[in-house]
Amino acid sequence: MKLPLPTLDLATQLLEFDVWITPSLGEIRDTDRFREELAAVIQTFESLGVASQRFKDVKDCQPSVIADAFVGRIHGMPARQALETLRSLASVLFLVTGKSDNNAKCQLPLFLRDKARWNAMPSVRRARGRLQLQNVPIPRELKAEKYMGIVASLADYPDHQKRLLEQFISFLLSNNSYISQLWSIGYSYFMLKPRGKEKDLLTPLVIFQARGSVAASGGHDPEEMLRRRMIEWGLDAESDFNSSDVVLTEVLRPLSSSTVIESLAVEPEEPRSGAEPAADQAETEESASVEITEEAGGKRVRVKTRAYDFILPYHVRGWQPKVFIQSQFYAGDSGSVSHKNVDQTSASRTAVLGILESPRFVEYVDGAGYFSSLNGDLKVLLSMTTTASFFQVRSSAIRLRRELQHAGFLVPIEVEHAVFRADGSQEQVRRVLAEEGYSPEEIERCISKCVSNGNVLAEGRRLSIAPGRRKTARRYFLLDVAAVHGSPPASPGDKMSGSLLVPGYGPFHGTKLDDLATHALRLAPGLKADWGDPTVILGDIRWLSDQGMAMSS
Fold it and tell me: 107, 293, 509, 518: most buried by Cβ count inside 10 Å?
């Protein structure tokens, strides 16, 4: 159903943001990544316990003892399993020392050169089908994963394996204080184990360590939540929308002559040395960074910009990209990271405006951080003249669909709603969609898509919604009815009790529940059979509320 596109001033938009905010996307301890990290840490402490007689004495935590134990443990293991075991050991050592791989990767090569007095390091290469030992120059950067991969590859050379592993452990346990920290945690772990409380000791440590990786790997990823929502509307990944960050040149061709992509980096930037990862204060998936060089007065100027989290339509025949979305979710104050993204947003939009006419820039923003310390950044984003709109986790079903509707891009769930309203007549379905402003070509494209993917069934001159889609389409229809026929309170003091409230039109906008059913049945009389049992419509309303798309007052 075509959703009205309101004109809301900044103050009203900010009020709506506060009412429909999602403070946090959940606990890190509920993610698969956290559970995997915790299991790996526990297994490593168990292995260390075998080597040290359950951490009986601090002297049993010396690097040479640990290296001996783990070289023995991985002996005969498949290469992948050996690497995972060594990764877990590195993870525990970072955990107990408070050090980070981001810093260690730069400092480890200098340690090997200046402390261990190495001029080169052992490695293996395959020549004529056989592995051969060789010495290679020490790289200028050595991440733990790469280093442990070298250690694991030396399975046929246990002396060299131990030598490499011992130096890595010595680098992290560089003095007696760090050794004591490892012993203290290990000793406490085994003291608590008979009480079944050993996980309680490790959980807060693993949470602290896993924050950044959970955010980067999509633990409670707002982008993944949006992808699932768009699939619910009948959209397809990689055709209607992209499933990963998009660099400008992947979809916008040809580039203007004045803009040259210098770098197509698609990995988030790592935190600065000595700085906490952004996710320590926030849950966010950083967009890829792209460096663009622009010609300015004959000079090449490097401009830092961002890839887009979503572009719609993405690869749809007959369509150019229309809606450009960047995503930022902050559960807390992430300081300079947010400010940086605000700056990069302007550069990203300038690049697109140099190539396309009338793109719509929409911000996907949410989280308690924007309610509090980052509220100024939110105001800046929404105040930009190029910002067409924003949406939150809870308002995407209204606000983002509304953007697609007004771009003229037909979404399958809108066809399903037209089937409800036309009572299945193909001719009437087309008439309903045409009256909502869609072109004949777009109507045919989307109806064909719905029929080919089985969401809509065609029988002669009639269309019907597939049984597996009917419930979802019906619930979204109720949501749209509340949006179209709803209104704000007549005056600030008025209550909206007994109403279904929806976002997208200010902080409080809704329809009385009895009016909601009346409007819905007037528009789609065929739904009377669905709602003959009143518990069905009540279940539909409850589902919308449980999903966060609406609120019952």
Answer: 509
What gap in Å lies between CA 369 and CA 362, rounded to an integer? Answer: 19
Closest Cα partner for 66 from 49, 41, 43?
49
Q: Residue 19: how many CB atoms within 10 A of its CB?
A: 15
Q: Where is 417: in which H helix or E strand? A: helix 412-422
Q: How far apart are CA 525 and CA 518, in angstroms?
A: 10
Considering only CA atoms, which of 420, 525, 528 is closest in space to residue 465?
420
Tokens of 189: 């772990």
| In the block, residue with structure tokens 């009143």 | 534
**What is the residue-level pLDDT of the chain in tens, covering all 553 positions?**
999 999 999 999 999 999 999 987 766 777 777 888 889 899 999 999 988 889 999 988 999 999 999 999 999 999 999 999 999 999 899 989 988 888 899 999 999 999 999 999 999 887 777 888 999 999 999 999 999 999 999 999 999 999 999 999 999 999 999 999 999 999 999 999 999 999 999 988 888 766 655 544 444 589 999 999 999 999 999 999 998 888 765 555 444 434 333 333 333 333 333 333 343 334 444 444 555 454 445 555 455 556 789 999 999 999 999 999 999 888 776 655 556 667 778 878 888 888 888 899 999 999 988 888 888 889 999 999 999 999 999 999 999 999 999 999 999 999 999 999 998 899 999 999 999 999 999 999 999 999 999 999 999 999 999 999 999 999 999 999 999 999 998 877 777 889 999 999 999 999 999 999 999 999 999 999 999 999 999 999 999 999 999 999 8
**What is the SS3 assignment for 393?**
coil
Q: For the range 175-180, what are the long-range contacts, defined as Cβ-Cβ under 8 Å and sequence gap of 24 or more?
A: 178/96, 178/97, 179/58, 179/61, 179/62, 180/58
CA distance 476 to 405: 15
Q: CA 402 to CA 480: how far, in whole Å?
A: 10
Strand order of the β-sheet with 551-552 is 510-512, 499-501, 551-552
Helix axes 198-216, 79-97, angle to 10 degrees: 110
Structure tokens at 428: 């009437």
